[in-house]
Amino acid sequence: MKIAILHTSFVFVSVEPVINNLIAELIPDAEVIHFVDSDVLATVVREQGISTRSEERMTHLAQAAEAAGADIIFSACSSLGPALDVAARNVTTPVVKIDDAMAVRAAAEGNRIGVLATVPTTLAPTSDLILAKAAGLGRTVTIEQRLCAGAFDVLMSGDRELHDSMVMEQALELAATVDMIVLAQASMSRLATLLAEKTQRPVLTSPRIGVEYLAQRVAELVA
Fold first, then answer.
1. For the chain, what percent of residues have pLDDT higher than 70?
2. Contact at 8 Å (CB) between 62 and 90?
3. CATH (domain of 176)
4. In this structure, are 186 and 157 located in the same domain?
5. Minimal CB count within 10 Å: which of 35, 92, 122, 190?
6. Mean pLDDT, the chain, as a whole number?
7. Domain extent at residue 165
């Protein structure tokens, strides 16, 4: 089974190996290949939205993965989620988004949901996805968005300690008005347990939930 992971930064390639580690744990026989467009996220941030050109770039990334013989494609970027929906329509290989399963769980279990991000372009796609999943379940939820501005750049510079303290500060403030916190980016995932302990709120993060769903899809493919 060949799994292609699509990235919009090198964070999960060189900084946070969480996705590779989870796949090794949950789908140990898989062959993993990586496809990275390290500029498209910066383009989306600069343009304050996903343009047709950015959709095309993600489609090209998915098509490259398909051409390489991937059996399934896993998107590691939450900000480009809507562009992956476009890409999925242009390949025959199944596409799984990292935050799909997390959004379903948030929609099913949360009422007042805080969405915490360190990249501004992730807030709307994650919030919209949760609202869509809630509508599909016949539930009404409210969402409060919170941006931890600058923390992602700090993480990419290698200063994990400062990144973590910035995220913790925002999470503690957010916890005062919500009953669940959703980490909109997998780059914060290793903080989930600590954040839940400190905020006394359920904290959802996408990597394990997302890779568990990926493993389920892989099992269906090989059955």
1. 97
2. yes
3. 3.40.50.1860
4. yes
5. 92
6. 91
7. 100-205
pLDDT at 202: 96
Give residue-wise pLDDT tens across range 68-126.
999 999 998 888 888 999 999 999 999 999 999 999 999 999 999 999 999 888 888 89
Residue 23 φ then ψ, to 5°: -65, -40
Strands 95-97 and 112-117: unpaired
Examine the domain organization and report whether 89 and 124 are in the same domain.
Answer: no
Q: Write down the pTM of the prediction.
A: 0.85
pLDDT of residue 45: 81
Name every residue whose Cβ is closer than 8 Å to that of residue 136 and which is 6 or more positions away in sequence.
Answer: 107
Domains in the chain: how many in total? 2
Specify whether 213 is located in the same domain as 152: no
